Amino acid sequence: MDNGYRPRRRIEERAAHVWHAQLQMEPSTARTLSELLSPDESFRAQRFRFVRDYETYVVSRGLLRLLLSYYLDLPPPEIRFIYGPYGKPALAPECGRLEFNLSHSKGLVAYVFSPHREVGVDIEFVCPKRADWQVARQCFSLREIESLQKVPSELFTEAFFACWTRKEAYIKARGVGVSLALDQFDVSVEPGEQPALLGSRENPQEASRWTFKDLNLVPEFKGALAVEGHNLDVEFFRWPDDCIAAQSAHAGAIPATDGLGKGGGIQVDLAGSTDNFSRILQPWATSSGKDREPNRISA
To answer: Which of 115, 119, 129, 209 stands the most exposed, by the fewest C-beta atoms within 10 Å?
Structure first.
């Protein structure tokens, strides 16, 4: 089927692309995204008890398929996933090679893509009530706790979430889930300190294998990126809330102007409308959505 679909974008070997988007969308857009999901994804979505959780899953997975199609030159419904022993998704071999990871928190979703390097991303809404010593003592290593004790009280919340997101990003990059205890490795914690993996009791060589980047995508959120290897260039992209048209041949790139992370980057200007988005994807959405349970996108 030829729908004028030629959106492919190349990622340089030493680069990682980070995208972020707001998960709250127009109901018609969310419904179109839901029809891009595979039958097993749709089945999983229907098992969510609360509409908010259902919509978060549907939109974040639909956007993941859309972004992957942007790089792979495959229609979104044709993308297939396989899963590691602890649940980390990866592309099925027939779809090509592109490493990816995603994280969402309180209405925001972030994605990272890299050609060959293992990647992990974590974002968290910064809620001071969640940053307390009880959680730190349960989840952080002794070295990290000692570093937190040196942090001025007014910077404690910032340091807590820096530690949390760096640890989560590393575990997600490894794809090891809860099999790796959080107190078995150390990340940098103190404000102003370079984000890094400082040590690992599991394997001392791990500290030299990874590059960490802090993500400051939007106010009130803290994020971290863990990427295998070094000499890393990170480019940043934003998926506009009111204009989801990454498949459009008219999409263009403009220089970033809003400080999306350190080191600059690219912000994608996605020209088009929700109507155009639906028109472009409708042939795929219709064919992939047969025999599904009714969706529960709220109007």
So the answer is: 129
